Structures are given as structure tokens and as C-alpha cells.
Target: Peptidase
Amino acid sequence: MGLTAISTSSVPRPFLAIPRKLVAAVTAAAVGLLPVVQASAQSKSLPIVRDAEIEALISEYATPIFKVAGLKSRGIRIVLVNNDSFNAFVDGRRIFINTGTLLQAETPNEVIGVIAHESGHLAGGHQHRLREQLRRAQTMAVIGMLLGMGATAAGAASGNRSVAGAGGGIALGGTEMAMRNLLSYQRTEEITADRSAITYLERTGQSAKGMLSTFERFANALSLTGTRVDPYRISHPMPRERIANLETLAHESRYFDKKDPEALQLRHDMMRAKIAAYTAGPGGVSRLFRNNPRGVAARYGNAISTFLNGSSKAALPKIDTLIKEQPKNPYFQEMRGEILLKANDAAGAAKAFQRAAALDPHKSSLIRMSYGRALMLTGARSNMPSAIRELKAGIARDPEFPAGYGYLAQAYGQMGDIGEAELATADMHYYSGNIQEARIFATRAQQKLKRGSPEWVRAQDIINSKKPRP
Model:
């Protein structure tokens, strides 16, 4: 489906009862060095990105790390966030990685280092312990505020303005002390996660050089801004401190000078080319690969940029040339399908997506749904049963992807099966977070579905669902 951006409100908004300064501290980025006041953005809806090629590559990066970290059986998911900053963070059983991280990381090893660090947080149970620290911090802050209120009340009763003023200072001091203690705890956990990452990289036979490169990037960016940072008011150690803590351990590894395999580096570069084409405009790819403008990655990015900027006719021969060079690359076939869809050749697109699905070793749900969507867009009634089958197969592997239900609704609509179409539309709204719309379509679907059938019961589940708390 290409690089598909969706907005989601499924990321929980934790700790809403705690003072805002503490919330900001807790939700601070888990890799980057961000001022505390900027970090609370994570508690809002996140623009999530879906792409079969990128998801497959990141899964390959993560799988060995998850195994040695003891996370393989926990169902950890990696979620891509459409944000151009270099950052990643954890939440429950999910690791969120910004597209900016993937774009800026020049080697697979740098991204693997980020994943290893986040895995250290999950394996160490840092989130659970952080919640305990939050409760303690909240208690400290509340005590400080109560003491301040008491002093203020005493000052008001006695008419002593200095006592009343001191009460305000006590209240602010209690919150400040709670925040500093919490941040100190977080910095300790970050150091622990860094050291765990070094261990995971060693056990998987990989270099920690990428981690050091990441912290060097942070340090250089910080020095270029000229910003003075209070080290006691941030949730992470300073970059130079992190480098100092890890440098000896990293260099002691027998794998320190080990480079990523050439084939993996090429796939990494093609991922970066795709992200640049979608997010950095027409010149993004050429700037990224100015030292190798005729390489496969640069030409792949150029083909995507040409397609995105409205010229399917010019993009098609570019992607066909790449297919001749790598005939077993499923993602070149997937992009060919996208180009043909834009050129209103749904039948040709369906063949390309079918070929992509056959070549795809990861059996991506997104490619299956793209195949089903193309069959549906042909408009031929004879193609609708196959379209529905492919869409349902993709949805079965990826049941929370709203667009899949939208395509399924269209296919059922073309078949004249209005009850199923409205149920699929209800599911689309449900997984998009539009609970009220989902209930409306589920109610309409029930009127056309057989009472007690699995579809009728699913509609009832949607009708009974509760809107998530903000």
C-alpha cells in the first residue's frame, strides 16, 4: 500500500491525575534528549505509518534482539510514527519508532541499537517500576501542596504576608523536588537500558558502534543549538555522558568493527529512499543519495518521487528497470501496483500485487489487502469474490487496520450484500476510533443480518462498545 499514514488515538494517555510537570517527565522520549516540557506530546494521538517493506525490515532487525532479551513470547509490536525527529519510546508491549529515526540512521546497526535500547526498557520492567515512582512522586507533590496550603492559610489568618508567601514556596518546592527525584530515577533507568542494549548486541554478534554514532549525533545537534541544558531537569543523561558510560564496553566487544552485510545495507538504503520520497519532497531523495545518484536506492526513491508527483507514465519504466535488476523483490512489484492504480489500470495493478504477494516471504497483510483492493477496483463482478477473499485474509492477519475494512465494504457493496458492507464500514469506524459512527453502521447492519449469526454478534459487540476515555 506504499507508505500509508493513519491517525490513531489508541495510544493511552497515562497518569492523567498527576501534576502536568510530572506527566511530561514520565512520557519523555526514550532515546532522544528532549526538554521535559516537549515530551507530553506522546500522550496525544499519534500519526501511525504502515508500509509492508519497512515493517518487514524492522522486524528482521528486531527479532534476534527480542530473542536474547527474553521478549520473543511477549507479542512485542513495533509501530512506526510519522515524525521527522530522531526518537523512539515504549508503551506497554509496543516500541514506537519515528520515521525520522529510520531516515537519519545511516546504517542498520544504528536502528538495531535503538531497538536494543528500547528492548532493555521492556525486559527490565522499567514501565512498571516507573509507575511506582510516579505514585511516590505524586505523593510528594501532594504533600508539598498541602503544606503550602497550610502555611498560606496560617499566614492569611494571622495577617502575616511573609508566612503566606512562604506557603506558595513550599508548594512549588514540593512539586519541584518530586519532579527532580523522578527525573533522577529515569536517568538511572536510561543508563541501565543502554547497558542492556550492549549485552543484547554482543549476544547477537553485532556492533555497538551504531549506538555510539546515535549519541554523537545527539551531542553534535545539542552543541549546534547553543542551548544550555540543566542536566537535572531532563529525563536522560547528557549524550557525552552516555558515550563515556558505554565507550569502553563497546570497544571491548569482538564485534565492534563488524559491518552490516551489504545486502542488508542496501535494503536499509531503499527504506530510507522510500521515506525520503514520501516525507521530504522531490529533492529529498537526491539530497540523501547525492554521493551515489545512480545506485539502486537512489533510483528507487526517484521512481517513487516521480509517481508521487503525478507522473505514472514516467514512473512505470523506472520501476520496471528495477524489477529487471531484482525480479524477486516483492516491494518493487508492490510499487508497480501502486503506480498502475494511479494510472487507472486496476487489472494490471492486481497482477502486480498478486506477484508481490507470491514473492513476499513475510506474507504481509498489507500486500494481500492491496491485491484485494485492486481486484475490487476493476469493477468486474466476477472479481468480487476473489477481492473479498483476499481482503478478509489480510484483515485476519491485521484486524486493526481500518482501511482494509473500507475496501471490504466497497467490495460487499458491489456484490449487493449491504448488511456485510455496513458491518465492514462499522468496523472501519471502530478501529479508527469513531465509536459513535461505528455504532450507527452496526445498528444498520444488524437490521440486514441474520439474528444470532457471527456477523450479527460482531455488530452487537460494536453497539455495546464504550468510547475510550480521553
